[in-house]
């Protein structure tokens, strides 16, 4: 995909993602980072760097290239993109080790708070001529004992049919394909939207340069992002993918899990419908 006038640059997406992160309360705001943990973890991290240099006999030109690249990541505001794509999946898996309930996945850089609230049966905000195959996501939110969670919230956001997110790609209207859906008295929801396309890490910034220079690919499989919450329960941040979709087995962000793959079925009305139930554990 080439960069057109309309596609967001890495710098635009990065700057918006940095702003969103600074104002977000979603993740990692509770809990302390003690000096002991800083010392232990940073020492281990540096040991890993030093070991890599020795094992691979890293040269001065390579060190200088890495230093120049790291400076560019900072100057171009790409840290949120880079960290979420290459690091967050490991933190998510570690924190999930002792969790019950539905599987989670990474938050990623593109959540925005304050999306429009919608009833349990709804259509996400979209342009009048929104391109893409109509998709319905339906299911129920329950707790780990099987009890329905009335009024549970499903904060959902996803890319459009070209792989772009509202709030980060300037040509997509604010709030497009984002909403906070409130489940009914029996925890049920039925969300109409369109099928998102795979997402490509912006290739015009330092993250893209790295991917290209290393000979990797910049793609994430098509996905829906969700945060599912209900008072008294641990919120689940997750993503849902589509069976048979491109890049499902080689996600650049390593954020897929077999339990998170939907199998939407064509309906007589031409829409594709997928069922997915969420299970929350007590907080
Ligand atoms: C990135 C983008 C995503 O849409 C996502 O889900 C995870 C990471 C990124 O550009 O880093
Ligand atoms: Fe995403």
Automatic annotation (TrEMBL):
This is Catechol 1,2-dioxygenase. One of its GO terms (biological process) is catechol-containing compound metabolic process. One of its GO terms (molecular function) is catechol 1,2-dioxygenase activity. Residues 10-20 have a biased composition (Low complexity). Belongs to the intradiol ring-cleavage dioxygenase family. Coiled coil: none annotated. It comes from Prauserella flavalba. Its cofactor is Fe(3+). Residues 1-35 are annotated as: Disordered. Keywords: Dioxygenase, Iron, Metal-binding, Oxidoreductase. Pfam families: Dioxygenase_C, Dioxygenase_N.
